[in-house]
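ok, trying the design again with the full structure, not the truncated one.
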C-alpha cells in the first residue's frame, strides 16, 4: 500500500504535503464532515416544502425545482472543481467552495420569492460540490487496496445516510424555527467546517503530481475517461442508483404528508427510520466483500432494489397495505441501494488514479445530474406513492441494463479477482 504523502513538502508552499499520512480515523471524520454538507443542504428543508409553497405563494412543482437546482449546482460545480483540484491541490478549492456555500445560505434569509430561492439553491449546490468531489480525490491520494475500500465505505455511509437523516433533523428544527432558520444552521455548519478545514486539513496532492489547468487538457482528460466503457458504465450505474434514492427524497414529503396525512415531525421520524436500513447495508458492505467481488455485490444490490421497487409500484397502484405497503418495500429499496452505493464509485475510481479529481468530478456530476433530471418526475407524475415506485423501478431497471451491457460484472471479476476493491494505477 502506497501513499503520496511521504514526499517532501515544497519550499515556501502554503499548502504543503505533510511528512506523514494522517490517521485514518481523523481523515474519515474530517472528510465525512465535508461530505455531509451536501446531503444536509439538499434535504434538511424537505419537511418544510409544503410550508414554502404557501409562504412564497407558488406551486409544489416549482418548490421541487429548488431541489433540482441544488443537484444541478452540485453536478456542474464538480466538473469545474475536480480538474481545479488536480491543478491547484485539494485544500484551497475545498475551502473556497465551502465559503461560497456559507454566503449562499445566508442570502436565503432575504429571498423574496421562489425564483431567487432557486438561484441561491444552485449556488449552494456549487459550493457543496467541493466537498463531494475533493473528499473522494483525497481518499484516492492517500489510500489503496482495502484501506481505500474501508474509507470509501465510511464516506458513502455519510452520503447514503445523510439524505435520509437530514429531513428528520429539519423536522425537529421546525419545532423551534421557520424554514429559513434551517439555512442559518447550514451557514453555521459551513463556518465550522471552514475553521476545522483550515486547521486540520493538510494538502494531499504534491506539486509535482498536479496537472496543468488548461481547457484543452481538461477536455482531453474527460474525453479519455468517457472512452473507458467500463468506467462510463459504472458512472451511469452510480447515477441511476442515486436517482432512485433522490426520487424517494424528492417525493417522500408529499407522499407521507399529503397522501397519508403525517405532520412534519411524524414525517421526519418515519423518513429517518429508513436510514437504519441504508446504514446497515453500507456497513455490511466491507464484510460482504470478504467473500464476494465488488461487482457481484453491486449487481445483487441493483437487482434487489429493482425487485423491491416493482413491489412498491404494485402495492401503491392497487392501494394494498396503506402506509405499511409503501414503507416496507421502500426500506428494502434503501437497503439494496446501501449495498450498491459504495461499490460502483469504488470500482470506477480505481481505474483512473492518475486523474482522481477529474474522475471523481465526472462521477459526482453524473450522480447528481441524473438525480436532478429524475427527481422532478415524481412531482410531474402526481407526487404519490405510485409515481415514486414507478420512477424508482425505472431508474434501477436502467441501472441493471447498463451493468449487464456496459460494465459486464463477470469480466470485472475475471480481471480483478474477488479480493481487489481499489487497484493502484
Amino acid at each position: 500500500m502506497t501513499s503520496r504523502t511521504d514526499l517532501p513538502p515544497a519550499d515556501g508552499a502554503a499548502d504543503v504535503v505533510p511528512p506523514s499520512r494522517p490517521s485514518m480515523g481523523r481523515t474519515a471524520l474530517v472528510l465525512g464532515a465535508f461530505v455531509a454538507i451536501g446531503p444536509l443542504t439538499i434535504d434538511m428543508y424537505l419537511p418544510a416544502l409544503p410550508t414554502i409553497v404557501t409562504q412564497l405563494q407558488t406551486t409544489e412543482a416549482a418548490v421541487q425545482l429548488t431541489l433540482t437546482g441544488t443537484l444541478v449546482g452540485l453536478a456542474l460545480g464538480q466538473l469545474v472543481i475536480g480538474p481545479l483540484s488536480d491543478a491547484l491541490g485539494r485544500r484551497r478549492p475545498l475551502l473556497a467552495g465551502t465559503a461560497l456555500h456559507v454566503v449562499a445560505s445566508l442570502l436565503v434569509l432575504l429571498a423574496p420569492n421562489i425564483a431567487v430561492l432557486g438561484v441561491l439553491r444552485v449556488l449552494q449546490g456549487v459550493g457543496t460540490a467541493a466537498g463531494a468531489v475533493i473528499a473522494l480525490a483525497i481518499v484516492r491520494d492517500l489510500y489503496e487496496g482495502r484501506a481505500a475500500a474501508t474509507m470509501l465505505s465510511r464516506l458513502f455511509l455519510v452520503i447514503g445516510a445523510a439524505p435520509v437523516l437530514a429531513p428528520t433533523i429539519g423536522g425537529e428544527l421546525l419545532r423551534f424555527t421557520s424554514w429559513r432558520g434551517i439555512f442559518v444552521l447550514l451557514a453555521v455548519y459551513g463556518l465550522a467546517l471552514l475553521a476545522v478545514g483550515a486547521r486540520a486539513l493538510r494538502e494531499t496532492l504534491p506539486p509535482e503530481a498536479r496537472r496543468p489547468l488548461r481547457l484543452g487538457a481538461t477536455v482531453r482528460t474527460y474525453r479519455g475517461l468517457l472512452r473507458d466503457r467500463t468506467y462510463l458504465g459504472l458512472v451511469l450505474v452510480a447515477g441511476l442508483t442515486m436517482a432512485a434514492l433522490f426520487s424517494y427524497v424528492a417525493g417522500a414529503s408529499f407522499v407521507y404528508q399529503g397522501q397519508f396525512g403525517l405532520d412534519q415531525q411524524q414525517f421526519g421520524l418515519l423518513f429517518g427510520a429508513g436510514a437504519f436500513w441504508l446504514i446497515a447495508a453500507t456497513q455490511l458492505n466491507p464484510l460482504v466483500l470478504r467473500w464476494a467481488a465488488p461487482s457481484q455485490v453491486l449487481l445483487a444490490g441493483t437487482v434487489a432494489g429493482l425487485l423491491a421497487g416493482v413491489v412498491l409500484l404494485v402495492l401503491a397502484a392497487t392501494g394494498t397495505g396503506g402506509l405499511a405497503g409503501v414503507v416496507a418495500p421502500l426500506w428494502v429499496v434503501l437497503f439494496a441501494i446501501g449495498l450498491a452505493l459504495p461499490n460502483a464509485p469504488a470500482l470506477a475510481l480505481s481505474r483512473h488514479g492518475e486523474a482522481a479529481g477529474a474522475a471523481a468530478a465526472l462521477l459526482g456530476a453524473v450522480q447528481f445530474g441524473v438525480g436532478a433530471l429524475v427527481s422532478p418526475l415524481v412531482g410531474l407524475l402526481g407526487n404519490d406513492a405510485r409515481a415514486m415506485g414507478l420512477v424508482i423501478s425505472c431508474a434501477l431497471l436502467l441501472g441493471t441494463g447498463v451493468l449487464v451491457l456496459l460494465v459486464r460484472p463477470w469480466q470485472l471479476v475475471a480481471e480483478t479477482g474477488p479480493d481487489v476493491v481499489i487497484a493502484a494505477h
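Keeping the full-length input from now on. The domain at 21-416 is CATH 1.20.1250.20 (Growth Hormone; Chain: A;).
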